[in-house]
């Protein structure tokens, strides 16, 4: 990263110019058009960064090169770079250009960044990391929800469970599943836990998009969620902790089967 006063790189990140010959457009990639060209371009560059094509410290091509490769305007390139900077993936300085920031500076709770992670070859590691975090957070968050939930919050949890049961597609089931867990985070009464909902939602969406769910497993998962809902409704924190741990263990098994 360059020093703000001198504009020269510090020892924190060694800047390396990317091989321009390696900057190519994906085969059969459609031309980016419309008002959201910069969003599509940011997605393309962001995915390349997250999957490791451009390691931290890499100086990216300039506006002219990106514009040429993707057949877009320079203004679209500038907007795309701004988006990636806002997500913590890039920094930029005059006379140096844009470079990839260290991974610890990336906003890993950003929906787009999570989506790029889940679409990368390393998505299995991503899902395991999310599960580790869920094991650390959700049992206690659910215990708090059992103690603190309001009637309105309980209704939101119960409705999500009902929608899971009535879902006619895997997408509807997954959306209701994510809504169930997010409602519990809200019912915990700790506002700092709520942003983690996007992490859970992303993990569930991408996990079940790649895994075929058998009917028996779906019924078993629903039963586990029913136990969670019941423990919160009866306001039994210890019961809630144990119910969530069993549900998380079931998801762990799904990931393990998928990775074989």
TrEMBL record:
Entry-linked PROSITE patterns: HTH_GNTR (PS50949)
Keywords: DNA-binding, Transcription, Transcription regulation
Keyword flag DNA-binding: yes
SMART domains: FCD, HTH_GNTR
Species per Swiss-Prot/TrEMBL record: Rhizobium leguminosarum
Domain of life: Bacteria
Domain HTH gntR-type: 35-103
Annotated GO MF terms: DNA binding; DNA-binding transcription factor activity
Organism classification: Bacteria, Pseudomonadati, Pseudomonadota, Alphaproteobacteria, Hyphomicrobiales
Pfam families the UniProt entry points to: FCD (PF07729), GntR (PF00392)
Protein name per its UniProtKB record: FadR family transcriptional regulator
Residues annotated as signal peptide: none
């Amino acid at each position: 990263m360059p020093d703000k006063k001198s504009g020269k790189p510090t020892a924190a990140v060694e800047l390396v110019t990317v091989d321009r010959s390696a900057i190519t457009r994906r085969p059969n990639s459609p031309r980016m058009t419309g008002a959201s060209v910069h969003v599509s371009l940011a997605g393309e560059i962001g995915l390349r960064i997250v999957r490791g094509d451009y390691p931290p410290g890499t100086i990216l091509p300039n506006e002219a090169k990106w514009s040429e490769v993707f057949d877009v305007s320079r203004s679209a390139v500038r907007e795309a770079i701004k988006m990636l900077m806002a997500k913590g993936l890039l920094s930029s300085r005059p006379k140096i250009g844009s470079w990839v920031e260290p991974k610890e500076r990336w906003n890993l709770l950003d929906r787009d960044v999570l989506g790029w992670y889940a679409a990368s070859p390393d998505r299995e590691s991503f899902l395991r990391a999310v599960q580790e975090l869920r094991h650390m957070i959700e049992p206690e968050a659910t215990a708090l929800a059992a103690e603190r939930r309001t009637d309105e919050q309980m209704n939101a949890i119960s409705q999500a469970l009902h929608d899971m049961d009535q879902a006619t597609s895997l997408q509807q089931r997954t959306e209701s599943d994510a809504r169930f867990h997010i409602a519990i985070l809200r019912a915990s009464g700790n506002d700092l836990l709520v942003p983690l909902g996007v992490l859970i939602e992303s993990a569930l969406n991408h996990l079940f998009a790649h895994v075929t769910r058998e009917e028996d497993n779906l019924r078993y998962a629903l039963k586990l969620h029913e136990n969670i809902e019941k423990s919160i409704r009866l306001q039994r924190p210890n019961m809630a902790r144990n119910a969530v741990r069993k549900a998380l263990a079931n998801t762990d098994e799904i990931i393990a089967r998928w990775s074989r």
